[in-house]
Write a structure and sequence with these properties.
Elements lengths: L7 E6 L14 H15 L4 E6 L7 H5 L5 H25 L4 E5 L8 E2 L2 H9 L3 E5 L9 H11 L4 E6 L4 E2 L11 E2 L1 E3 H6 L7 H9 L4 E5 L5 H6 L6 E4 L1
Parallel strand pairs: 1-2, 1-6, 2-5, 3-4, 3-5, 6-10, 9-11
Antiparallel strand pairs: 7-8, 10-11
Length: 238
């Protein structure tokens, strides 16, 4: 087996990953499947931090289309990420993985407040750390939160988990001739508007030299292959 390429990763999950076939609500069996995949990575000795979205519970665009205040819609989304984080924490701990949830919005009865040095210490002690409530500020996506936390923690890579095996020049679900990219630069993502992550997140990764790896988390080999330096997904770097 090849030596590990990464020692500390930031895994970005969409909220829809917990929503099962419909993409909505919380499917506990999906949470257990994701937890099992994270457990496999954790057992290799890799330090794992997670940021999860809330698209399975709340999509702010629905409110914005009806005139809702943008900040209110974003705060609702942040609360949704806390719910998803607790579900994933429970699934991990039922599989024997010690886990901590930290929240950018203080809610001490449910989660620790986000403190960078404490988060790093948890990782060093072998705990999985789940970051909830985004950045704690409206107008920033959970993609940006993932880029921010990955940079703060000095992660080796930000892994964007999707249900496709990388980045394509068009939607492979509707275009059978879509071309997959094995590698791209940060500027490629921005200039081609490939929609992998929002421009703020990509720019933050670029400015801090944090590579982004886009892969299919539901491929049983992709994540482990990537950790051992084998070709998997699409690598976005400088």
């Amino acid at each position: 087996m090849n030596p590990l390429k990464y020692n500390r990763i930031l895994l970005k999950l969409s909220g829809e990953a917990l929503g099962g076939a419909s993409g909505f609500g919380i499917d506990v069996s999906e949470a257990e499947a994701i937890a099992n995949r994270i457990k496999g990575v954790h057992q290799t000795g890799v330090e794992v931090a997670v940021v999860i979205g809330a698209g399975n519970l709340w999509r702010g665009k629905q409110g914005l289309d009806r005139g809702m205040d943008r900040a209110t819609a974003d705060y609702m989304g942040m609360l949704g990420t806390v719910m998803n984080s607790l579900v994933l924490m429970d699934a991990l701990e039922r599989q024997g993985v010690f886990t901590r949830v930290q929240s950018a919005i203080e809610m001490r009865a449910l989660a620790e407040p986000y403190i960078r040095r404490r988060a790093i210490r948890h990782l060093e002690k072998g705990r999985v750390v789940i970051f909830s409530a985004g950045t704690g500020n409206p107008f920033f996506s959970t993609d940006t939160a993932a880029a921010l936390r990955g940079t703060e923690l000095d992660a080796n890579v930000l892994i964007k988990a999707t249900k496709v095996d990388g980045v394509y020049d068009s939607d492979p679900k509707t275009n059978s001739n879509a071309k997959k990219f094995n590698e791209l630069t940060y500027d490629d993502i921005i200039s081609r508007r490939l929609g992998v992550m929002d421009a703020t997140a990509v720019t933050l990764c670029r400015d801090n030299n944090l590579p982004i790896l886009v892969l299919n988390l539901w491929d049983e080999h992709a994540l482990m292959d990537a950790l051992h330096g084998k070709a998997a997904g699409t690598l976005i770097h400088g």
